[in-house]
Amino acid sequence: MSFITRLKWLMRRRKKYPPDDIHRAGDLAEMRLAKLSRAVGKSNGWKIHESVRIPDPDGGRREIDMVIIGGNIILVVEQKHWAGSFRINNQHHFIQKRKSGVEHNHDGVADRIARKARILTALHVERLGLSEDLLPEVRVIVAMTHQKLEWPKIPSDLSAEMVNEKGFLDLLKNLNPGPANEGLIATMNGFNTWDEVHMNGGLMNKGDVLELGLGEELENIFSLRGAEVNAQTMHKRGLFSVFDKTPSSMKIKIGEKNAEVILACGAMMKMHVVGESAPREIPWACIDKIILSKPAEEWNRN
Fold first, then answer.
1. Can you give the pTM of this predicted structure?
2. Is the distance from CB of 123 to CB of 54 less than 8 angstroms?
3. Mean pLDDT of successive 10-residue segments in the chain (302 residues)?
């Protein structure tokens, strides 16, 4: 390997990808609400599922911020961590006014999450062939969690309940859903979530990892997996590492299988990142760690 190639490899390992502040604030707020929900809802038996992805009959997949189950009750939750204020017009479009004075129309926030709730419920009912008397109770909730958000009057015919953070946590604390429903638990365990690829510098890419790009043997294990994948990379980024023949390595766990991998110069992962029109390659030299979801069950795939 030429010195120029080694130098380029080092520069790639040292490159930093800072987080997107707007999306990071939303992600942190979602993690906070999920953590609080687990703590508050534990005594009543609520089970928290984050970033649940469901197949859309119109194509693709849709994400639900949080699905909480207890007994035969399903809480389908959309979280918004908006600052400033918002209003809801006659078409039930949510129009956020940021502190800068700029307005942004988020369209039908409540209508969208209500539709996702219907899709999820239909999958559960169809999977188990439930009769009318065994249908779950479904509550659709929009949780506005920013403490300083100014609220408007909420239309009485909105397709979701509107609560602030305290109101949402009080709901979990005060509502006892009864004994666990094993069929509902099994349904929720059949969904998957986004894959996460954490970059050097703090940026997190969410989406679907399509190929690891680490050789045929590992690729076969990955494609046939039935469990989550976790991996932590180790990169030497000091100036003298330019002379190291193996400056990058990784410990990876796929289900019960563990492996230590030497990351070659130019090794690339293939990923379809959320919001991008097509998959792209991501250099392993720039990746700090990955957390990849288990695959969805067969009945839950489009």
1. 0.86
2. yes
3. 93 93 77 94 95 90 95 96 91 88 89 97 95 94 93 94 96 95 95 95 94 93 92 96 95 92 96 93 97 90 70
Identity of residue 259: A
**Alpha-carbon radius of gyration of the chain:** 22
| Amino acid letter for position 135 | L
Enter the tokens of residue 32: 């906070």
Tokens of residue 222, six digits:
């990955």
Q: What backbone phi and psi angles, to 5 degrees, belong to 93?
A: -80, 135
Angle at the Cα of 249 from the Cα atoms of 245 and 251, rounded to 5 degrees: 160
Contact 282, 290 (CB under 8 A): no
Helix H or strand E segment including 232: strand 229-235
248-254 vs 257-262, strand pairing mode: antiparallel
Determine the Cα–Cα distance for residues 117 and 140; give it in Å rounded to an integer: 7
Do 53 and 62 meet the contact criterion of CB atoms below 8 Å apart?
A: yes
Q: Say how far apart CA 55 and CA 68 lie, in whole Å.
A: 18
E-strand spans in the chain? Answer: 47-55, 61-70, 73-80, 85-88, 94-97, 103-105, 137-144, 161-164, 195-199, 204-211, 229-235, 248-254, 257-262, 268-273, 280-283, 287-292
